[in-house]
Amino acid sequence: MPPEPDLTGAAPALHDAVGPLADGSMISVRNMSKLYGDFVALDRLNFDVQRGEKIVVLGPSGSGKSTLIRTFNRIEPHDSGSILIDGTVIDDKTNLTPLRCMVGMVFQNYNLFPHLSVVDNCTLAPQLVRSLSRKEAKDMALHFLQQVGIPEQANKYPIQLSGGQQQRVAIARALCMQPEVILFDEPTAALDPEAITGVVSIMNTLAEQGITTLCVTHEMAFSRHIADKIIFMDRGRILEITPPEEFFTTPQTERAQNFLNQMIRY
Amino acid sequence: MPLTPWLSGSSHPDLPLTAPLHASRAAIGTPYARNNFFRQRLSGIGFSRKAFPLRKPVHHIRTTFLLMAGLMMGGANVAHAQGHQEDIPSFVQNGTLTVCTNPTLPPMTFVKGSDASKPEGMDIDVARALAERWHATLSIIPMDFTGLFPSLGAQRCGMVISGIIQLPDREKNFDAVAYQDTALTVVARANTAPINSMADLSGKTIAVQSGTSYATRINRENEALTAAGKLPIIIQQYPTEDQVVQQVLIGRVFAFVSQDVELYFRQKQLHGKVRIILKPDYSDYRHFAIYLRKNAQDRTLVQNAISTLEQDGTLTAYRQKWSISSQTEQALTQDTGASAFNWGAFFSALTSMAFLRGAFITLAVALLSHAIAIVISIPMAITLNGRGNSLLKAVLKTYVSVFRGAPTLLQLLFIWNALPQFFPIFREQWFTPFLATLVALSINESAYQVEINRSALSAVDAGQELAADALGMSRRQVYRYVIFPQALRIALPPTINDFISLLKTTSLASVISLQELLAITQVQVARTFEFTEYYAAALVYYLAMVFFFLFLQKRVERRFSWADRKKASANAS
Ligand SMILES: Nc1ncnc2c1ncn2[C@@H]1O[C@H](COP(=O)(O)OP(=O)(O)OP(=O)(O)O)[C@@H](O)[C@H]1O
Ligand SMILES: [Mg+2]
């Protein structure tokens, strides 16, 4: 049994939000904690994400951003509190297959399957998990590769692509599962500026299409102009949940101010 | 043969003169037995596993125990057998004469063809003639030399006929009836002048088969030589008879010591390349005898039967049939001239069914045991790579250390010879040398393969599993479609290297009488003594197999072009 999170400290900022689910919430998080041994990586978090909302998660390194978004597809199981995705409780009894079909994920390092061609990267899981035929899966893969702007790379291997192209494939691969929520974990962090522009514009397009998006990114173009809300985290806690214009102009906490100062400097 | 051989007592040359009753030429020394040629031929059949007994005290104790038990039962049998028909010995029961033999001494008792369960030779013919005389069916039980006397004692057979020297020590416990003369011979290359006595060998090097009593006997000569202030005879010991002969043929040693009867037979193979230079008359090396459980009446009956066979010319006919005659000795001195590489022998070896079969067994054992090793090592590697410390992990780690630490040869011998001591089920017929080799090599190889698999699995980026998980794949799918294909690329080159090494390791299995390529080669060498030609043919087979797998490795690596940017581009364009 992992130790209980520290309950003696100050109540979390959004503790009062515990209550019945808001109608139409895509994600509901209540008192959710995550431990690594004794270390509290996520500390009694509470918030809701509405259907179609775009959330950017910000915070210093090690604050728990990656851990947070990984709890939504249960790649990192949480230890206490509750998470509901589209009204379904996520715990160790949850059938993971439908959950992961519904919640797609894109990684900083792309994590493409190097032994498969671009198109096979996109068709593998739909065939195995969603039982699509090879033809259906391939048609869909080509559709999404078209959408991310690299249809001509379909038959190449990942190693032959640039970083930006690989991240586009990773996005197409996630979209082929036709998720309702998509999680981005610093999708542009490993890219050069030109490639960043391309990937961000794809994310913009997706956002416009109404898919619920949670994105860990320091990319101002996305955070400022596309995001509906900024979640600011520090040391496993959520310190602020505010619209971007508010967050970037008048941050409520000192930690956020410091963080923004640092961000601007680099 | 000039003498009536059953008159005087003597002993088997292969036994040290002081050997205990139950000792044998196989048991007192190396696990390799006397005539490797014939030993090799025994493989594949149940009894042959006993051809390579480990020298273990347990075994000896057990043997002695069996022997004692047998003697007691044998005693009971004497009383029981009194009422039997006059001219049929009591050990012929239910119309069957059961004979124990160790078929490794040509031309007395040996496996000539490929059917190891059917020994042939002078001894077998004599046994058949006796059975006929007693209106009995003959049942031959081939077994390890060590097992002969205990089996006789335990009444598993009525008599033992196996080219065993008549030895007074043995006659304390069993009755013996001599049927064949024999003599010790000293053999050198064809152009060597005869010598007058063993003393003439002073300071010279001779070869003998290890585990035989020849070394003991020559050491006694050496004591005399040293006492006389002369140099001793230098003795080199080799595990197989054909190697002993080879040392003379290649000129490394001056002479070798053997038994004339055996040599008459071998001269066919040697093509006059050697000659007998001395027959020292050792009184304890004169006769082969049939052994039976002590029973004065039986002994007389057997003796009468042998006398009759000698008088009616039956034994003489057998001696001619098996080339046991002094005329054939002449052939030994006819030099066939310098021996160059015999291309004919080389090509006929290369295309022979025997070699093809040996290569097939080598390949089959290597492929099967590696396949089994891979199958069992994958879950082991996954477990060992997993997080945390479990008891299972500790067990697996011990398994890997033990089987990587112990010599493969030892593991083979252990499984073949020691395992049956703990689990008698491994003594049974189904546990063939092939199966034993498969078990030993699979276990051994899996210990190596685990390490290859482990490093290959951990070389696959952790992000791959994460991405596959995030796409909703099941545990099985993640491994099957994402991790294994990538680990395979990393594991394949070392795996094929291991396989090539394993292919060559199979040759060790000749010690447990598996008929693989090297065993076949040794058999053919022992038969013909054209060792250069047969070694060369074996080399060709091994190299052909290895090159085939190296070629395969190249071909398979091409399939992994996805890992190499340039190759991937070349493939795509
Ligand atoms: N598997 C793990 N075991 C133990 N501790 C972990 C593990 N994964 C993360 N942590 C710790 O949990 C904390 C949060 O990690 P997380 O990766 O979520 O941070 P982050 O906000 O994404 O940081 P970054 O911006 O550097 O990616 C860190 O202190 C980290 O050291
Ligand atoms: Mg992170």
TrEMBL record, chain A:
Name assigned to this protein: ABC transporter ATP-binding protein
PROSITE patterns from the UniProt entry: ABC_TRANSPORTER_1 (PS00211), ABC_TRANSPORTER_2 (PS50893)
SMART domains, sorted: AAA
Family: Belongs to the ABC transporter superfamily.
InterPro entries: AAA+_ATPase, ABC_ATPase_HisP-typ, ABC_transporter-like_ATP-bd, ABC_transporter-like_CS, MetN_ABC_transporter-like, P-loop_NTPase
Source lineage: Bacteria, Pseudomonadati, Pseudomonadota, Alphaproteobacteria, Acetobacterales
Keyword terms of this UniProt record: ATP-binding, Nucleotide-binding, Transport
MF GO annotations: ABC-type amino acid transporter activity; ATP binding; ATP hydrolysis activity
Domain ABC transporter: 27-260
